[in-house]
């Protein structure tokens, strides 16, 4: 049994310190976002489809991370989980194409604190798709 804790934020600042709210068998983090009408003055309507595409990409980029998006306006929901990381992303992008080799080519490495992952797979198409994702961390 793990401890369930909670913290609320408003405009980027914690409203209270972490509080224990009970015990749980579940693991992970839940983030609930409700737009602030003072900040989002033009519209507070979000595209479920646009957010789903971005969250799917994030789940590919974070191997083994499960991301769930729920739209309480109409009860739509998606769960994204890809154990294969960017290898799974390349396979997903090529799912409706004729691939020239069955598995994506995957290379990873790290040098001087810089980590790199590359995945590619050739198909019989004439167009290339090159996607680059960069994440920068500055530790102090």
Number of helices: 2
Which sequence of SSEs, written as H and E, runs from N to C? EEEEHEEHEE
Structural class label: alpha+beta
Helix percentage range: 10-25%
Unreliable runs: none
Shape, principal axes of CA atoms: extended
Span between termini: 34 Å
Q: Roughly how many Å is the radius of gyration?
A: 20 Å
Strand order across the largest sheet: 1-4
Q: Could you give the count of β-strands?
A: 8
Descriptive notes:
With 140 residues, the protein is of the alpha+beta class. It is 16% helix and 28% strand. It has two helices and eight strands, in the order ββββαββαββ. The strands form four sheets. A two-stranded antiparallel ribbon has the order 1-4. Strands 2-3 form a two-stranded antiparallel ribbon. A two-stranded antiparallel sheet has the order 5-6. The longest helix is centred in the middle third of the chain and has 14 residues, at 48-61. It starts with a strand and ends in a 20-residue tail after the last strand.
Provide a quick synopsis of the model.
The chain is of the alpha+beta class and 140 residues long. It has helices spanning 48-61, 86-93; strands at residues 2-6, 9-10, 13-14, 19-24, 67-71, 76-80, 105-111, 114-120. The two termini are 34 Å apart.
